[in-house]
Design brief:
Blueprint lengths: L8 H15 L1 H12 L7 H10 L11 H10 L11 H9 E6 L2 E10 L4 E7 L1 H7 L4 E6 L2 E6 H7 L5 E2 L1 E3 L10 E3 L14 H11 L4 H16 L8 E5 L6 H12 L3 E4 L3 H4 L11 E5 L7 H12 L2 E4 L7 E4 L3 E6 L14 E5 L8 H13 L2 H10 L15 H9 L3 H11 L6 E3 H13 L4 H15 L5 E5 L8 E5 L3 H12 L8
Parallel strand pairs: 1-6, 7-8, 9-14, 9-15, 10-11, 11-14
Antiparallel strand pairs: 1-2, 2-3, 4-5, 12-13, 16-18, 17-18
Helix pairs in contact: 1-2, 1-4, 5-7, 6-7, 8-9, 9-14, 17-18
GO molecular function: hydrolase activity, acting on acid anhydrides
Length: 508
């Protein structure tokens, strides 16, 4: 009790109640009186009267001996039984224990100087203890000492750092008993100028399109203002090497520090082991995907729009975590993303080549951002940008997205696009001929009956008003030839443009 000040009357009364409740009237009073006499305000008559007043107060279980320990700790007292030796304390400074995936793990907080980011490494209890088994401390055991490994001492210590759960909650209060992976932004907002990168976004990344520029700036601000939310739309930059696609991603990533990640291999995005995505807010996918990868297509779509993400580390159980990813992609390939009808996942930009390989132009951007307060100014402006009317899913449809959608069509739809692109004297075609020459080739092995059924089902979806099947009489002993009658070419084209959600007429 020496650590507890007795001059504060509220604390003085509270301690008296706790001692009377826990130790009784005689022992409690003696201890309270001895402690009270340390105060310059001590008055024995006041103390006696106050003590007797306690019997009329119903304190229940809210004030106990634990209250004394709590108040003592609040005033700097350290329980000698919970105090750690220096070497054990050093372990506690960088390690903690937590449950994850139904198992108990030891986590180590590391820093990777090469990546310039903090890393959280997970290991089993036994491997952790084995690693430190060669470092021991002498621990009193009765009248002698026993040498015990520091790993075991730390793991068994009642005051070691322990958490019920590891979470990633950017910008949110951490729940009691949880370890939050969020480390905050790496750049403090300060008013200033980042005019050169700002101009690069509007003039080069968005090729001078004002509506695209406004959306992209809002998208960047949304990620900064709401790092706890899912991005929902991936920004896709398509263009030649050296046009500056990666320049925006590089500086934007610096704002997030260790919560930004650049990947260059598809396995790091769509592979089985993806623990690196767990504490990521901004993800830059640089030439890492091929749009024709059907397995990766569904994974990518989920990362862009699904509210949760399945996290799997090597040798660890699968866990489900909140998806906080804001994804930006860059590629010089013609086909970058698997865009679907009325696509709302990918905001695709054709980057201008007006400054391709322009070293002085890019050097000026670097200098302003890194040496003239550009990063801090960018952070300030994005944090203060008005997003009250912004809907992240409502982005400008671009010619570049049209192109990605057309490149992503399945074989049947590609055949229909080609058919509508040709000049026909009659909008009626023989079923067997079409199947054998085109449709069956696009859909695999030819089988007259099954392929005719598939063709009919397909045309009923894409032809406005459906198709009419007619039978022409046989000529010169030949078999009758079933045909489909279609609406005129213009109607079929307009219907398909509407179904796909295209911005432009692809046949012009």
């Amino acid at each position: 009790m020496a650590a507890i000040p007795s001059d504060d009357r509220d604390i003085w009364v509270r301690i008296g109640l706790a001692l009377r409740q826990s130790l009784g009237t005689e022992t409690g009073y003696k201890l309270w009186l001895t402690w009270s006499k340390k105060s310059t305000k001590f008055d024995e008559h006041d103390a006696e009267a106050t003590w007797h007043s306690f019997k009329d107060q119903a304190v229940g279980a809210s004030v106990t001996l634990g209250t004394v320990f709590y108040v003592a700790k609040e005033n700097g007292w350290i329980d000698p039984q919970r105090e750690m030796p220096d070497k054990v304390q050093a372990l506690d400074d960088t390690h903690f224990v937590a449950f994850e995936g139904g198992k108990c793990w030891v986590f180590k907080e590391d820093f990777d100087p090469e990546l310039n980011r903090s890393m959280l490494n997970r290991m089993g209890v036994e491997p952790f203890c084995n690693f430190y088994c060669n470092q021991k401390l002498a621990v009193p055991q009765g009248e002698s000492f026993k040498m015990i490994p520091i790993g075991s001492l730390w793991f068994d210590h009642p005051a070691r750092r322990s958490f019920h759960k590891v979470v990633f909650m950017p910008g949110m209060p951490t729940p009691d008993g949880c370890y939050n992976l969020w480390r905050g932004f790496s750049v403090a907002p300060i008013p200033g100028s980042w005019s050169l990168l700002h101009h690069h976004i509007l003039d080069v990344i968005c090729a001078g399109d004002i509506s695209c520029g406004e959306y992209l700036l809002n998208w960047l601000a949304f990620a900064v203002q709401y790092p706890d939310k899912l991005g929902e739309v991936a920004v896709v930059m398509k263009g030649e090497r050296g046009t500056g696609k990666g320049k925006l991603a590089y500086f934007f990533g610096l704002l997030f520090g260790e919560h930004s990640l650049q990947i260059n291999q598809s396995k790091h995005l769509v592979g089985n082991f993806n623990a690196h995505l767990r504490s990521c807010v901004f993800l830059f996918v640089d030439e890492a995907l091929w749009a024709g990868d059907k397995q990766g297509e569904n994974v990518l779509k989920g990362l862009v729009t699904e509210p949760t993400i399945q996290i799997e580390g090597k040798g660890a159980n699968l866990i489900t975590a909140a998806n906080r990813l804001h994804i930006m992609m860059a590629s010089n390939n013609e086909w970058v993303v698997p865009a679907g009808n009325r696509e709302r996942r990918y905001f695709v930009l054709q980057v201008s080549d007006k400054h391709i390989q322009d070293k002085p132009y890019f050097a000026a951007i670097d200098h302003q951002m890194l040496h003239q307060g550009g990063l801090a100014a960018m952070m300030h402006d994005l944090l203060n940008r008005d997003l009250s009317a912004f809907d992240v899913r409502s982005f400008p449809w671009t010619d570049a997205l049209d192109e990605q959608l057309l490149r992503s069509l399945d074989p049947a739809m590609q055949w229909w696009m080609d058919y509508l692109g040709k000049t026909h004297t009659c909008w009626e075609f023989p079923i067997r001929g079409v199947i054998s020459e085109a449709f069956a080739l696009a859909n695999g092995t030819y089988n007259s009956k099954s392929s005719e059924t598939k063709l009919g089902m397909f045309l009923s979806k894409v032809v406005p008003g459906g198709v009419k099947k007619v039978v022409h009489a046989s000529v010169a002993g030949a078999k009758p030839n079933d045909c489909y009658q279609l609406p005129n070419q213009t109607a079929c084209r307009q219907s398909l443009i509407k179904q796909l959600g295209l911005k432009n007429d692809p046949w012009i």
